[in-house]
Amino acid sequence: MGVHLMECAGNVRLTRFALLSAGSWSGIPASQILDDVKLKSTSARVLISGFDRYAKDSKTSIPGASWLFTYEQLKSSGAFFATELNDHPLTRDHGAPVRLLVPGWYGCCCIKWVDEIKFVGENAEVTSQMKEYAGRTMQRGVPQLARDYQPAVIEQAAMPVRVEKWSISGKLKYRVVGIAWGGSQPIKVLAIRFNPEEDYVPVDNFRHIGNDPWTLWSHTWSPQAPGTYSIRLAVKEPVIQARRLDSGYYVRSVEITEV
To answer: Please, what is the Cα angle at 48 between 36 and 17, to 5 degrees?
Structure first.
């Protein structure tokens, strides 16, 4: 099924955005299974659920692992039921024996340990998991009906992953290396700045290859003085939605000790 990125909707600076990865997946397209089912005219949505029953209650999560989709959402996203990751059978931690993966959607939608596929009507209520992740998937409040719940897609995002220090002809040079991911269409210009009082400038080595899994970029940087710098990215194209990026969600800081 290809290489796909997965990001947790709860990715935060505290964990250094570590809940982000890409893997090579194998499985079967969801549409291939659903096409074999004769749906009733009242079956408007697909409820996909997974095991979520434990001896002790979780202190951090609401019980219930399930998400509601339309058939078109599953088909257009290329959703599939995964059985292997990186050429090996899924491990229990990754949802063995079968988990759902929805490319381009947050990991909360990619149900592990799938044990039920159910068809429901247009007036189906959202699941407990959808309620729990409403804020993290940028819903307007907590929708009560699945039809009012916006797709939990990963919007265009970008962040630096390392800052390199080079000595070239006896002079120090810095290079910021990062990734861009999410969204559904190519972007022409990725912009960067190093402090709130500075203007954004185009990243000087950026060619958008694809939204999934990610695109590498780099930018040559000459800080004027030692100090702490906040590196922030932006997309200056009005048709591209990037609410997390625009809010400063993926800002990273770096301490420069010599220039």
So the answer is: 130
The answer to whether 85 and 24 are in contact (CB under 8 A) is yes
The answer to whether the CB of 122 falls within 8 A of the CB of 140 is no
Scanning 14-164, the segments in alpha helix (DSSP H) are 30-34, 71-77, 128-132
- The answer to pTM > 0.70 is yes
For the chain, list the domains and their CATH numbers: 2-148 (3.90.420.10), 157-256 (2.60.40)
User: Given pLDDT bands bounded at 50, 70 and 90, which one contains residue 218?
Assistant: very high
Characterise 175 by phi-psi region: left (phi > 0), alpha (psi -120 to 50), beta (else): beta
* Burial (CB count within 10 angstroms: exposed 0-12, middle 13-18, buried 19+), residue 178: buried
Query: Is the CA virtual torsion 241, 108, 79, 181 positive or negative?
Result: positive
Whether residue 110 contacts residue 98, with contact meaning beta carbons closer than 8 Å, is answered with no
